[in-house]
Amino acid sequence: MKTEAVTGEARSEADNLDCIHCGLCLAVCPTYLQLANEADSPRGRIYLMDALKEGRVEPSSGNLHKHVLLCLECRACETACPSGVRFSIMMNAARAAILERRRFSTIERAVRRFVFDRAMSSRVVLRLGFAALRIYQLCGLQRLVRGSGILKLFPATLGTMESLLPVIPNRASYSLPVRGTGNGRLSVAFFEGCIMPELFGPTHEATIRVLERNGVAICLPSRQTCCGALHIHEGEMGKALDLARRNIDAFEDDGADFIVTNAAGCGAMLKEYGQLLKDDPVYAGRASAFSHRVKDISEFLDMLEIGGEMGRLELKVTYDDPCHLLHAQGIRSAPRNLLRRIPGIEFVEMSDSDRCCGSAGIYNIMQPGLANQILAEKIANIVRTGASVVATGNPGCLLQIEAGLRARKLAIRVVHPVELLDEAYRRGSRSDASSHSSQQRRCE
Ligand code: SF4
Ligand code: SF4
Q1: Ligand 2 lined by 18 (C-beta under 6 Å)
Q2: pLDDT tens, the chain, 444 aa long
Q3: Is residue 316 a part of any domain in this protein?
Q4: Domain region containing 390
Q5: Most ligand 1 atoms within 8 A of CB, residue of 34, 46, 77 to mutate
Q6: Beta-carbon neighbour count of residue 105 at 10 Å?
Q7: How many whole angstroms from 159 Cα to the centroid of ligand 2?
Q8: Burial, 90: exposed, middle or buried (Cβ in 10 Å; 0-12, 13-18, 19+)?
């Protein structure tokens, strides 16, 4: 077995030196590249966050809000920084401080409480919500709404959310034991995520098939919940830590060697539980043990050196690095290695594959203008490769890129790398690849 990544946990234990103001991070910061404003660069934001910490600026300052909230939290600045500055730790603390003082309207407060306290941590609420969206699409109402332009009468956020909605596939259907059986080559506990089973059921099914094909025993701890990544990005630190503790409890007795996720954003968050709970007298050690077991699916499969017969996929494929896989988890070569293993695939790199697509959690909903500018560059880079398929390993990136291609009527498929592996395995075993589930998310 081999390993590539420097995990978030390992990185968090590295020296966290002060910013030396060298400016090397400016050239990789998507917001600075778009706005050419020092306050929208990592260095400018660090200056503002230091001022907040030292009491030179109030948490209620409009200037602070503007520049801190325009950050994508893509963490490209961390990869570029020669001084080991852990930008995300500062940013999470700054957002939590801002949230404490921020004044929300009654409606905004109610929506936030519903989304962050109820919906995202309740499978029942999410299942009902996505069932309603499936009906909205199947009964033709979505076509009517999009065609009528009626959404222009509502707050812009609603229109942005609607435009991002992909064709929602059937909910994932798989049955796994809640505890490891120990009868595989290795055993993993699968982290499902909150929206993944609803929006990316076929990706989960493909992940499970590929793991099983490689002799890995899989279990699904039943009490797991949302990872808390969106909460922390939105300044909801207390709620994020609650969710972290619930997941640590849920996976503690799973009997598995590793915890595997196919969502880069979730993986980055899970790997940082150790850092986030390092001062918790009850959870510190358990959180660290949990984080050390977490692997992204590409990292795990590459480490395993997968085998078995694969059929040919005659496809030209490019790859987009999810920020939370590359910059937060340090994983670059694993997904590329996996794609290159598939017979028939012509792999082509895109320019700036390591630059954010503008998704960034719910950034594309909260800051649609800048998110669309950033997305436009990503789409142009994809098109320039001439690829017919773009692979990326994070739900937000899958949705964002797919929405960008759909808006431009470009017939380029967007898939998770594991779906291509699954497709090749299925073709290798002479099953009918044309019915493969990943094709349900073909761009129209
Ligand atoms: S996290 Fe991304 S957007 Fe934010 S300052 Fe760093 S590079 Fe810029
Ligand atoms: S964050 Fe790092 S790269 Fe950016 S200015 Fe500071 S020391 Fe330089």
Answers
A1: no
A2: 554 544 444 344 333 458 999 999 999 999 999 999 999 999 999 999 999 888 898 888 888 889 999 999 999 999 999 999 999 999 998 998 888 777 777 777 777 777 777 777 778 888 888 888 888 888 888 888 887 777 777 777 777 777 777 788 777 777 788 877 766 678 999 999 988 888 899 999 999 999 999 999 999 999 999 999 999 988 889 999 999 999 999 999 888 999 999 999 999 999 999 999 999 999 999 999 999 999 999 999 999 988 889 999 999 999 999 999 999 999 999 999 999 999 999 999 999 999 999 998 888 888 888 999 999 999 999 999 999 999 999 999 999 999 999 999 999 999 999 999 999 999 987 644 343 343 333 322
A3: yes
A4: 309-441
A5: 77
A6: 8
A7: 37
A8: buried
Are both 80 and 127 inside the same structural domain? no
pTM over the 0.90 mark = no
Please report the atom of ligand 1 found closest to the CA of residue 25. Answer: 7
Tell which residue, 109, 74, 99, 120, has the closest CA to residue 243: 120
Check whether residue 314 and residue 428 sit in a common domain. Answer: yes
- Cα 420 from chain centroid (whole Å): 19
Question: Which CATH number fits the domain that encloses residue 233?
Answer: 3.40.50
The total domain count for the chain is: 4
Under 8 Å between Cβ of 385 and 403: no
**Residue 342 structure tokens:** 């598939």
- Residue 392 carries which side chain, given as an amino acid letter? T
